[in-house]
Amino acid sequence: MKILVTGGLGYIGSHVVVELQEQGYDVVIIDNLSNTSIDVLDNINSITGLKPKFEQLDVRDKTELSEFFKRHHDIEGIIHFAASKAVGESVEKPLLYYENNINALVYLLQNIQDKKVNFIFSSSCTVYGQADDLPITENAPIKAAESPYGNTKQIGEEIIQDTCKVNPNFKAIALRYFNPIGAHDSALIGELPLGVPQNLVPYITQTAIGLREQLSVYGDDYPTRDGTAIRDYIHVVDLAKAHVSALSRLLEKKAKVNFEVFNVGTGEGSTVIEVITAFEKASGQKLNYKIVGRRAGDVVEAFAQTDKVNSALGWKSQYSLEEALASSWAWEKKVRGK
Ligand code: UD1
User: Fold this and answer.
1) Is 71 left (phi over 0), alpha (psi -120 to 50) or beta?
2) Which of 178, 299, 315, 330 lies at a CB distance of 3.0 to 4.6 Å from 245, suitable for a disulfide?
3) CA–centroid distance, residue 115 to ligand 1 (Å)
């Protein structure tokens, strides 16, 4: 069965491709290589023994995209990752974010809306903003987005939902990720941020390897157990498996409605200090860090209620925080040749 993964050479996409191949799916990747390298294709091949089909293609290119679908009319499922994800950059370049994350989604949907295609959308817990109740359920209200990036995830879900309303054959699931971290056990694929990392875990591993001098911990005056902000960090391989489970749900026609959303997290919240401590334990390295002021736009606390995803998808995260951080560290060392 042929499955298209857009952005399939990126961080989360590449891990999903591996899981799909391991479950016997025939994978086609499109990626414009804007935030990754073609080497990822060989690394996927080294893990699974199978080279996925790959076309270098930009989803914003309407003509190329419709040509692609003419060549691949037998695609039964699409997992859509091709998008931009840096919150800070989205504030600086809002139109780029609306073009990459909204225009591209619309073009993709135009090609498939009237077909029997199953669609998985890469959404984010950022749609909840600072939720009033924790853990966060899928019924928590959507809050005004803090950034154009967050807005694209909210609008993206609405666009898909509206498309589902008028096309009963078109079935979609939006997965709202909490904080993906870690790398494949093989250390052959992982996260490779361009420039200075904005996210916590790559900043930690780059500091530990000597690429950055010191980690800044953004705020220790939050109303939490140690004053630092709380997030739900999920191993990327667990997250990847959730995609395969979501796809199976659609293919096996288990969903009663044609648009559903699921939180994908561990259900456990960790403070920034707890992440640092777990990293030090996992790596045997002392981390150089200092406490600085809060980062604008950060929420105090976000962790998932996972009952819905656990029961509907039969999926549950397996890796611990320490295991996830150990895999991030193994990947960082591998990438830097240490
Ligand atoms: C946010 C969004 C997430 C989005 C991601 C994209 C929420 C709840 N989450 O993640 O949906 O996909 O951006 O980038 O809105 N921190 C430091 N020092 C650093 C970096 C981070 O202390 O150098 C802290 C942050 O203040 C935060 C935690 O570490 O408390 C995690 O930060 P980060 O990895 O950037 O992810 P979020 O901001 O939670």
Assistant:
1) alpha
2) 315
3) 37
For residue 5, which amino acid is it? V
Active-site residue flag, 149: yes
**What are 330's two structure tokens?**
């193994």
In DSSP notation, 187-255 reads SSS----SSS--SHHHHHHHHHTTSSS-EEEE-S-SSSSSSS-EE-EEEHHHHHHHHHHHHHHHHTT--
pTM (2 d.p.): 0.97
How far is 13 from 239, CA to CA, in rounded Å?
10
Residue of 97, 149, 203, 233 with catalytic role: 149
Identify which of 84, 178, 179, 271 to mutate to test ligand 1's pocket (most ligand atoms within 8 A of the CB).
179
* Per-residue pLDDT tens over the stretch 181-227: 999 999 999 999 989 999 999 999 999 999 999 999 999 999 999 99
